[in-house]
Amino acid sequence: MALRSMRKTRGCWGFIRALHKAPEAAPAPQVAEHTQLSWILTCMVRLPRLQHLHQWKAKSAKQKHDGTVGLLTYPVLQAADVLLYKSTHVPVGEDQVQHMELVQDLARGFNKKYGEFFPVPKSILTSMKKVKSLRDPSAKMSKSDPDRLATVRITDSPEEIVQKFRKAVTDFTSEVTYDPAHREGVSNLVAIHSAVTGLPVEEVVRQSAGLDTAHYKLLVADAVIEKFAPIKSEIEKLKMDKDHLEKVLQMGSARAKELAYPVCQEVKKLVGFL
Q1: Cα angle vertex 13, ends 77, 126, to 5°?
Q2: Catalytic one of 8, 113, 130, 143
Q3: pLDDT given at position 155
Q4: What pTM does this model have?
C-alpha cells in the first residue's frame, strides 16, 4: 500500500498542485528519511496494537485475512510522515482518528524514553468528518472502491457526476431530510450538498423543501459540478505543462529533504544509531 502510494505521487501531483498552488507543498517521494523513521517507530509499537486498528481488520477481512506486513505497518509510516516534520496539527477524516491516536502515542512514547523531542500533534476535523459511499452509505467513500458509481472524483466529467448521483442509494421516502441514524443515503447527500455549498445542513434541508429525492440528487450533482469546475480546469492546465510539474516535484522533494534530514539524524543519535 505504501509503495503504491509512492508510485501514484507523480500521477496525482497535478491535482495536489492545483489545490495548494504552492511549490513548497510538494510531496516527498524521494526522501528516504520517511522510511528510516518509520522503521525506528515500528520497533516501538507492539504487534497487537497494529492488529487492533479497525482499518487493518476491515481490509484484512476483505482480503480473506491475507493482508501483508506492509498493510499492517502502514499506519506507522503515516506516523513517520507526521512526526518527521514535527507537525503540531494534522487535518484528517474521521476514519483516520484512530491512526492519529497511534501517532500521538508514538510521540509520547518516544519522548518518555528519549526526552521531549516530538510535539504531540492534534487532529483537525472538518464539519463533514466522513464522506459516505454513494452506493453504500454505511461505508466511507473510497477511491479504491471497485464500484465506479460509489465514488465521485474531482476529475469526473459533469455527465459522470450526474450519473453517479442519479444512481446514489437512498430509500423509499421521497422527502429530503437529515437523519443519519435512520436515513443514511439521503443524509449523505445533504451532507455533501452542505460541504460543497458551505451552507449549514439545516439551511440545505430548508431550501430543498418540496423536492423529491430524485430531483434533489440532480441538485446536489449540479452543486458538486460547480464546486469542482475551477479545480478541474486548473488540473487540465497543469497537465499540459509536465516539465513544470516535474520541476515543482523536484523542488518539493529537495525542500522536504532539507527539513527531514536533521530531524532524522537527531532521532538516530537519540536511539543510538549514530
Answers
A1: 65
A2: 143
A3: 93
A4: 0.76
Tell me the pLDDT of the chain averaged across its residues: 88
Active-site residue 59, yes or no?
A: yes
| Widest CA span in the chain | 69
Question: Do the Cβ atoms of 26 and 249 come closer than 8 Å?
Answer: yes
Write the pLDDT tens digit of every residue in 96-111: 899 999 999 999 999 9
Residue 122, classed as helix, strand or coil, is: strand
Q: What is the mean pLDDT of residues 192-213?
A: 96
Is 143 annotated in the active site? yes
Instruction: From the candidates 8, 21, 57, 59, give the one annotated as an active-site residue.
Output: 59
C-alpha distance across the termini of the chain, in Å: 30
Cα–Cα distances in Å, from 134 out to 184, 221, 244? 10, 12, 36
Marked catalytic residue, from 129, 130, 140, 227: 140
